[in-house]
Amino acid sequence: MNSLSLTLWAAVVLLALWLAWTYNRLVSARNAVKEGWSGIDVQLKRRHDLVPLLVDAVGAYARHERGLLERVARLRSRSVPDLEEEAELSRGLEQLLAVAEAYPDLKASANFLSLQRQLVEVEEALQLARRYYNGAVRVYNTLLESFPTLLVARRFGFTPARYFELPLATEARPPEVKW
Q1: Residues spanned by the domain of 64
Q2: Is 150 helix (H, G, I), strand (E, B) or coil?
Q3: How many C-beta atoms surround the C-beta of residue 70 within 10 A?
Q4: What angle do CA 30, 42, 119 make, to 5 degrees?
Q5: Which value, in Å, is the radius of gyration of the alpha carbons in the chain?
Q6: How many domains would you assign to the chain?
Q7: Roughly how many angstroms between the first and final C-alpha of the chain, as a whole number?
Q8: CATH label of the domain that carries residue 28
Q9: Among residues 68, 61, 143, which one has the least CA distance to residue 103?
Q10: Can you tell me whether residue 140 is helix, strand or coil?
């Protein structure tokens, strides 16, 4: 074997190793994005599990707020909510907690206070999950757009991920809970 064929063979092996390494980096980054979205799903499920308990607690005191209670319950019951529905649910939860302010007995209820604390915890965990997801999307999309990784990404059909963005800037903050 002459030195030219040996050099050519070594270059092919190095290229194959680089391709495998690059492909695996892309797969790893894509899986981090999927993991991040799963984290958001878990927190949304937790929030949706709390909604009927809050509706029931407030409903016992605020029967005349039936429309609000029904709207929040309807939004919560959606199996696959989109971002706009999640934003509407956040607004509904804010209104629900505002209604609770008008009922001193409800505000003093240990059960309601526990539900409020749980909601705050869920909203904070949801915010962290959103940040993690968006960080994973940033890393993944940067890989897709960086040379020479973009050559591998295009060849194997990797597509950019979308950031988790709320439809309204006011939805970026969790519902306000007054003690």
Answers
A1: 19-172
A2: helix
A3: 12
A4: 135
A5: 24
A6: 1
A7: 81
A8: 1.20.1440.20
A9: 61
A10: helix
